[in-house]
Amino acid sequence: MLLDTSALNQQRQRVGDDESVWLFGYGSLIWKADFPFLERRRAFICGWERRFWQGSHDHRGTPEAPGRVATLVASPDAVCHGMAYRITGETLKPLDIREKNGYLREITTLTFDDGKHAEGLVYLATEENPAYLGDAPLDAIAAQIDRAHGPSGANREYLLNLACALRELDVDDPHTFALANRLMPPA
Ligand code: SIN
After folding, report:
1. Is residue 185 part of a domain?
2. Number of separate domains in the chain
3. Which of 39, 49, 64, 99 is catalytic?
4. What is the reported pTM?
5. E.C. number, please (predicted)?
6. What residues make up the domain containing 33?
7. CATH number of the CATH domain containing 172
8. DSSP 185
9. Measured between alpha carbons, how far is 136 from 132 in angstroms, rounded to an integer?
10. Residue pair 142/183 in contact by the 8 Å Cβ criterion
11. Residue 134 carries which DSSP code?
12. Cβ of residue 25 lying under 6 Å from some atom of ligand 1
């Protein structure tokens, strides 16, 4: 099901075109940084776990056969590692379009490698959004990802690129790695 959150996001935190803001990325925003940024730093946020529980009808699947992409699920003791980008408000606009299928911008506290903190934004898709698919057995999630394909390409590419980027960052993510290990090698 499609819900375009881009207009809602523009209203949530107003960032002037020339102002800058930190954005925390935990999914495609880690490995597909095809947007201009002023700074890029490894970072983590506390209290959240990465899960392939969000449906993708617009990028890695279709309305008829949605794929699955990452969102964050609240988990008090968890730490989610990712990549932070300092971007301008001008750059945020196209990212709102990219993340429009159910993600809402939230304010979060980022911690950088050196222990310093900053307030920033994160795109979060909660169970309230119509594209949310939620939990399922890992085999079923992996099979859905293996099948799905959308305008941005194969869903498996999203998962494998994310797993590869997390390994490069030396981040342990049992959920993502368990799914990636279940994917059949390409024919
Ligand atoms: C993110 O990467 O931070 C949001 C989800 C996605 O675009 O994969």
Report:
1. no
2. 1
3. 99
4. 0.95
5. 4.3.2.7
6. 6-178
7. 3.10.490.10
8. P
9. 12
10. yes
11. -
12. yes
